[in-house]
Design goal:
Helices cover 51% and strands 13% of the residues. With 292 residues, it is an alpha/beta fold. It has 2 domains: 4-161, NAD(P)-binding Rossmann-like Domain (Rossmann fold); 169-289, N-(1-d-carboxylethyl)-l-norvaline Dehydrogenase, domain 2, CATH 1.10.1040.10. Helix 12 packs antiparallel against helix 13.
């Protein structure tokens, strides 16, 4: 008999993850604030719940991919956790603050449920092809229960131990490094362009030699070609993540001056009405500064 899963949050990442779980043979009940986003999954066989609590099975498994700390804390109310109850498992894939995960662990434990932080590194196309990577942290038994489930839609699973906030720290570090790489490539490609060298030429040379890695090859192509749509991860979400990174760094007295620079790029982009662009559009800041 197929294992039942509740899936809450069907954004650009949530929808393809839920699709992979359906395709893997799980019986999935989905919920999203905008109900129309559930329709494609319903056509694949998912049940659609009218509210988050209705999606939950007592003692069952629930995945969530929600926007921010407030969305997760609001959705996982006392009423929902009471229904999830003893032996229930929440696998939280949202990019949230480490402290939020620690707080959620306490509230879950109050009702006998377990919480695992499991943020994912992948864009939607990588999820559908099973090429993403995931980091997990939380109570040992819960982590072991979660790992075979997430292996249905990722390539690699990396365990960061008992502290439920640890996986969120890793996710914030990774997103910061991507954003910093976007800035680095933007500045380098702009220098080349101002020197009469096509952006595509420097991109092709560097990403086939010194920087032959997926982040540089995939995001670098977008920076080189000024490709900021379709929006798979929006600029406002990028700013949210860099703010969380700076909050986490301040808490442990770890200065991150480059993160401050990247934050200002996001703020500047939003001030220029670029909220409807992918977060790669922070790279336009270097072009703006160079008069291009």
């Amino acid at each position: 008999m197929a294992e039942k899963i509740a899936f809450l949050g069907l954004g650009n990442l949530g929808a393809p993850i839920a699709q992979r779980l359906i395709n893997s043979g799980f019986e999935v009940t989905v919920w999203n604030r905008t109900i129309s986003k559930a329709e494609p999954l319903a056509q694949l066989g998912a049940k659609v719940a009218e509210n988050a609590i209705d999606a939950i099975e007592p003692g069952g498994i629930v995945f969530s991919v929600l926007a921010d700390d407030n969305a997760v804390e609001t959705t996982f109310s006392d009423a929902l956790l009471q229904k999830l109850g003893s032996n229930g498992l929440h696998i939280s894939m949202s990019t949230i603050s480490p402290d939020c995960s620690r707080k959620l662990t306490e509230t879950h434990n109050k009702y006998g449920a377990s919480y695992v932080a499991a943020p994912i590194f992948a864009r939607p196309d990588a999820v559908l092809s099973g090429m993403g990577n995931i980091v997990v942290s939380g109570e040992a038994g819960a982590r072991e229960r979660a790992k075979p489930l997430v292996q249905n839609f990722v390539k690699g699973v990396f365990d960061f131990g008992d502290d439920p906030g640890a996986a969120n720290v890793i996710k914030l570090c990774g997103n910061f490094m991507i954003a910093a790489s976007l800035e680095m490539m933007a500045e380098a490609f702009t220098l080349a362009e101002k020197s009469g060298i096509p952006r595509q030429s420097i991109y092709e040379m560097l990403t086939s030699t010194l920087f032959a890695a997926p982040i540089f090859q995939n995001y670098g192509k977008m920076v080189a070609q000024h490709t900021y749509e379709p929006v798979l991860f929006g600029l406002p979400l990028g700013l949210k993540d860099i703010n969380l990174t700076l909050q986490a760094s301040a808490k442990v007295n770890a200065p991150m001056p480059l993160a401050d620079l990247v934050k200002n790029r996001f703020v500047s982009a939003l001030a220029k009405d670029r909220a409807g662009m992918d977060w790669v559009a922070l790279a336009k800041g270097a072009s703006d500064d160079a008069g291009l």
